[in-house]
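Appendix B. Raw example, untouched.
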Amino acid sequence: MSEAAAAIGRLRTELTGLGVTEAYEVGDDATLSVWIGLVVSYRDGFYRWKEGPVKRRHLGSDPVGCSHRVARRYAELQADVPAWWEDLARTLRGESAQGHP
């Protein structure tokens, strides 16, 4: 198992413990899709996530701290869906995604 796969696995476990159960690995062993438009990857010792145009990073040695930050942002996004989400959902999922993250 690669360092990235192990780090993403630890992060996913922590997120699940915080109630973020829909996150899934994209398939490259280094990327976790938390919610449409909110993606976390592991590279060069850092968790890096982006949400729309916003990019953040967190030390890879702290999956607990990173999971709290990502879970908090996930909850904020679900509570107040950003304007860019509608366009992204339509592009990625088609018209049938309306109202369903």
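End of appendix B.
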